[in-house]
C-alpha cells in the first residue's frame, strides 16, 4: 500500500563495536576487548539477547512419572550468552590470570547485549574471595570456578570442566537483615546439614551456592553443592521461580533445604564477615551493570536522534535535544569512569559511595533515554523497555539505597583513615571540586542517619567530578562540574548550563556504525 511506505524511521543499531566507547577506552584498549565489542554489536548476538528475555526460564519440579527433578529449562540463547561470557573470562578467570580491570571492561561491554546472565557470571566471580576463607575448599573449587569452560551438565562439581556459583542468603522474614535468618545448620561429622527456606536464591541451577545458616556458633557461611560428590542430588528443592520486573532471562527461586549437605566456609559465627567478601565484589558488578546500562541508553538515544527528523531537522541538531543527550552522556561517562577506577584498584569507601549513587541514577537515566525515542521507545521492539525494567535491579541487589548509605556512615565513624584517603584523592584537581569538598568537610561532623543519603550523594558526585577532571574528556569534566558540583543544573536531564560544549560531548556519544 502506498500509505505504508516507511520513511523517517531509524535503522537498527547493529554492526558496530560496542567497546568503541571513549570513556572505556581511556582505561582499557586491547584486542580481546575490541573483538568482544564487535561481537556484541552484531545483529545475531543482539537477537540472542532478545530471545533469552522473551523466552524466560521455566521450572520443572517433576518429570512425567512424578519423580522430583527440580530443574530449570533455559532457552538455548541463554546458554550461548553464558558460554561467551565464560570463555572470555568474565567470571572468575581474573583470580587466576590477574587482570581484573580487563575483566570489568569486558563485563561492561557484554552486559549491553543482555544483562540477566551477568548475575551468575558476577556471583561466580565474587565467590572466589569468600571461598578462600576455607583453603581446602578453595584448592578444590577455585580452579573449576575460574575455568573458561561452560559446563551446564548436572553432575558432581569436581567431575565437571567448569563451575558456576550462586548465592543463597535472604529469607522472607529478613531480606537485607540476614542476621534474622532461621535456616539451621547441624554438624554431621565433617559436614553440616542445612534445613530452611530461602526466599531469593539467585541462579538456582548453579553448581554450588554460598549459603548463610545458623550453626551452633551463630550465623555462618557454607558451600552447598547442587549435586553431592557421589553423584546424587543434594536435598534442595525449588518451590517456585520469581516473576520479576526485569532480569527476566535469569532464574531466581525460592528454595528449600531439607538436611542439605554443606561445608563450612570461614569460622562458625562469622558468616556475615565471610559473605561480605562476596558482597563487596558483586557490588562492583552492580556499578558496572548500571554504567553499562547507561552507555546502552545513551548510544540508542543518540543513534535515534542522529537519524530521526522532526520539525524540519534531525533531532540531534535541535538545541533542546542536544542538551538532553549531552546530559545523559555526561552521566554515563561519569559512571563509566568511576566504575573503571574502582575496578583498577578497589577503594572500599569509594565502592560503597558509588554503589549507592550510580545504581540509584540508573532508572532515571533509562527513563530519559527511552523518552528520546518517543513512542518508538515505549515499544518492546526498541529494546528500551527491557533496559528500563532492568535498571532498578542494581540499586536493590547487594544492599538497597539505605543499606549502602548506612554502610558509608559506619565506615566513616569506624575508620577515619578512609576519610583522609578519600579527601586526598579529590582535593586539588579543580576549584569547583575543591569548593564542594570544603562544604562536605563542614557537614561531616554533623551527620545522622536521616541525612545519610544527602552525604553519600555529595561524596559520590565529588568523586566522579575529581575522576573526570583527572581522566575524562575536558568538555565532559567541565559540564559535570558546572552542573553537578556548582549547582547550575535543574532536576531533570537536559538542564546543562549555557557554555556547555555540546558538540564535543555528543561526538563521543553517537555510535560509529
Automatic annotation (TrEMBL):
Please report the stretch or stretches of sequence annotated as the Acyl-CoA dehydrogenase/oxidase C-terminal domain.
Answer: 269-412
- Name the cofactor(s): FAD
Output the Gene Ontology terms for molecular function. acyl-CoA dehydrogenase activity
Q: Which Pfam families does this one have?
A: Acyl-CoA_dh_1 (PF00441), Acyl-CoA_dh_M (PF02770), AidB_N (PF18158)
This protein's record includes keyword Flavoprotein: yes
Q: Which PROSITE patterns has this protein been placed in?
A: ACYL_COA_DH_2
Which keywords describe this protein according to UniProt?
FAD, Flavoprotein, Oxidoreductase
The Adaptive response protein AidB N-terminal domain extends over 8-151
* Keyword Metal-binding carried by entry: no
- Report domain Acyl-CoA oxidase/dehydrogenase middle positions: 167-259
Family, according to the entry, reads as follows: Belongs to the acyl-CoA dehydrogenase family.
Domain of life according to the entry? Bacteria
- State the protein's name: DNA alkylation response protein
Amino acid at each position: 500500500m502506498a500509505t505504508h511506505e516507511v520513511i523517517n524511521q531509524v535503522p537498527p543499531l547493529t554492526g558496530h563495536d560496542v567497546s568503541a566507547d571513549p570513556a572505556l577506552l581511556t582505561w582499557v584498549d586491547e584486542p580481546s576487548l575490541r573483538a568482544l565489542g564487535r561481537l556484541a554489536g552484531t545483529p545475531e548476538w543482539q537477537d540472542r539477547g532478545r530471545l533469552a528475555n522473551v523466552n524466560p526460564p521455566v521450572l520443572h519440579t517433576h518429570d512425567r512419572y512424578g519423580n522430583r527433578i527440580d530443574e530449570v529449562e533455559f532457552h538455548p540463547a541463554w546458554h550461548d550468552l553464558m558460554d561467551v561470557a565464560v570463555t572470555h573470562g568474565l567470571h572468575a578467570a581474573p583470580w587466576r590470570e590477574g587482570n581484573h580491570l580487563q575483566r570489568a571492561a569486558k563485563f561492561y561491554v557484554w552486559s549491553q547485549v543482555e544483562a540477566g546472565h551477568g548475575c551468575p557470571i558476577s556471583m561466580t566471580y565474587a565467590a572466589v574471595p569468600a571461598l578462600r576463607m576455607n583453603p581446602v575448599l578453595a584448592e578444590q573449587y577455585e580452579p573449576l570456578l575460574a575455568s573458561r569452560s561452560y559446563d551446564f551438565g548436572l553432575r558432581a562439581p569436581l567431575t565437571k570442566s567448569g563451575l558456576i556459583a550462586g548465592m543463597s542468603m535472604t529469607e522472607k522474614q529478613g531480606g537485607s537483615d540476614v542476621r534474622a535468618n532461621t535456616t539451621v545448620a547441624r554438624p554431621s561429622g565433617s559436614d553440616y546439614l542445612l534445613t530452611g527456606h530461602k526466599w531469593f536464591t539467585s541462579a538456582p541451577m548453579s553448581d554450588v551456592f554460598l549459603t548463610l545458616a545458623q550453626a551452633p556458633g551463630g550465623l555462618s557461611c557454607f558451600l552447598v553443592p547442587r549435586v553431592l560428590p557421589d553423584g546424587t542430588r543434594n536435598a534442595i528443592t525449588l518451590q517456585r521461580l520469581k516473576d520479576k520486573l526485569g532480569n527476566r532471562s535469569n532464574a531466581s527461586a525460592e528454595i528449600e533445604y531439607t538436611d542439605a549437605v554443606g561445608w563450612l566456609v570461614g569460622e562458625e559465627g562469622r558468616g556475615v564477615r565471610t559473605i561480605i567478601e562476596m558482597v563487596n565484589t558483586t557490588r562492583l558488578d552492580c556499578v558496572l551493570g548500571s554504567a553499562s546500562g547507561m552507555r546502552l541508553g545513551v548510544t540508542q538515544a543518540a543513534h535515534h536522534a542522529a537519524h530521526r527528523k522532526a520539525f524540519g531537522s534531525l533531532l540531534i541538531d535541535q538545541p533542546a535535544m542536544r542538551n538532553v543527550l549531552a546530559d545523559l552522556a555526561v552521566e554515563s561517562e561519569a559512571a563509566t569512569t568511576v566504575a573503571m577506577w574502582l575496578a583498577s584498584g578497589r577503594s572500599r569507601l569509594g565502592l560503597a559511595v558509588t554503589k549507592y549513587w550510580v545504581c540509584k541514577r540508573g532508572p532515571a537515566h533509562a527513563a530519559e533515554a527511552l523518552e528520546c525515542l518517543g513512542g518508538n521507545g515505549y515499544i518492546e521492539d526498541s529494546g528500551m523497555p527491557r533496559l528500563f525494567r532492568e535498571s532498578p535491579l542494581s540499586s536493590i541487589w547487594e544492599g538497597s539505597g539505605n543499606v549502602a548509605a548506612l554502610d558509608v556512615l559506619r565506615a566513616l565513624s569506624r575508620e577515619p583513615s578512609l576519610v583522609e584517603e578519600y579527601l586526598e584523592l579529590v582535593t586539588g584537581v579543580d576549584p569547583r571540586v575543591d569548593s564542594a569538598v570544603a562544604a562536605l568537610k563542614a557537614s561531616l561532623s554533623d551527620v545522622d542517619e536521616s541525612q545519610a543519603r544527602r552525604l553519600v550523594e555529595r561524596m559520590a558526585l565529588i568523586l566522579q567530578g575529581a575522576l573526570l577532571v583527572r581522566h575524562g574528556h575536558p568538555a565532559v569534566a567541565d559540564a559535570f562540574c558546572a552542573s553537578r558540583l556548582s549547582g547550575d543544573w535543574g532536576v531533570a536531564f537536559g538542564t546543562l548550563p549555557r557554555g556547555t560544549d555540546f558538540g564535543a560531548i555528543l561526538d563521543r556519544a553517537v555510535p560509529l556504525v
